[in-house]
Amino acid sequence: MKALLKIFIPVLLVAFGMMILATTMNRSEGYSGGNTLTIYNWGDYIDPALIKKFEKESGIKVIYQTFDSNEAMMTKIEQGGTTFDIAVPSDYAINKMKDENLLIPLDHTKLPNEKYLDKRFMNLSFDENNEYSMPYFWGTLGIIYNKKMFPDKNFDHWDSLWDKDLENQILLIDGAREVMGLGLNSLGYSLNDTNEKHLEEALLKLKKMTPNVKAIVGDEIKLLMADNEAGVAVTFSGEASEMLSENADLDYVIPKEGSNLWFDNMVIPKTAKNVDGAHQFINFMLKPENAAINAEYVGYATPNKAAIKLLPKEISQDKRFYPDMNELDNLEVYDNLGKRMLSHYNELFLEFKMYRK
């Protein structure tokens, strides 16, 4: 009997240890519940101090994980092996997730701070009546350029990117919707256009820009523009704001023909384990004081009308990042084009990239 116990007890200890390890790994992979909240967000998209503040106020432990694209985020949630309580997808992704039954409807009685949000950014086409999402940040797609390198040029129009003086000077964001969209906008078409003739016309025009394109990149745009390694880039407003703080010679404009108006909203995925905690966190982030802290840290525009009043005037009165209402009229939110058309956009964008080589 003693011999059996000597064998059995170590086995139990090992099994217990493996159970603890599995639990820890599950939590690190996003499994949550009770006093744990797992958040899935873009990288460097929240002030870390706010996470600590929420943990202190709520008694809930936050596990924070990041993604680098809406598609990667949706795939992981759709697979269901990893549980997240909060995610922060973009507009068209919210619409897609809603259609695929990946979201839990919000309980608005638990979100009293939504009263502080700007009505312009509520009840939009991708989520009518904000049934599934609450605004987090918003912004535009535009052109950032070096005023010292190009003192006599303005970039108020997309066609400026085809100027022969810009040879090997332009950095393009590595995104099919963004690049195909600017090509379409430059021709007077919608960036959600699905007309094959218009798409081919946009691709042909983009190919004529290739002598000016230095690189098609992602986050590297910030460093390259800040260090004067390129003179012009197509990028998002929040990224541009960060670059401007690093290099006073830079400026940002939204082309007059139109561009993308984007939104990132907070949602609760269907596999969430801590739905009540998720509502607590969303309401916490909608508090004007917290929204202002976050906007100042991240650099993107807050949709929180009350929070804007708490921001330094050099931020809140900067029309490049908080444009007037009439300047938003010709901007478009990306529609959910469906898998087939999105794949076609990606194929056209790939053809453009291959043409450069």
Brief summary of the model shown:
This protein is of the alpha/beta class and 357 residues long. The protein has helices at residues 2-28, 48-58, 70-79, 91-99, 176-186, 196-207, 220-226, 237-246, 275-286, 288-298, 305-308, 313-316, 338-356, and strands spanning 36-42, 61-67, 86-87, 133-146, 170-173, 213-217, 232-236, 250-253, 259-267, 331-332. The protein is 41% helix and 17% strand.
- Estimate the global geometry from the Cα principal axes: globular
CATH topology of the largest domain: D-Maltodextrin-Binding Protein, domain 2
Question: How many DSSP-defined strands?
Answer: 10
Helix content: 40-55%
**Major sheet attributes:** 7 strands, mixed
Provide a count of the helices: 13
What's the CATH superfamily of the largest domain, by name? Periplasmic binding protein-like II
Sequence stretches where pLDDT stays below 50 over 5 or more residues: 21-32
Strand percentage lies at 15-25%
Name of the CATH first level of the largest domain: Alpha Beta
Structural class: alpha/beta
How far apart are the termini?
75 Å
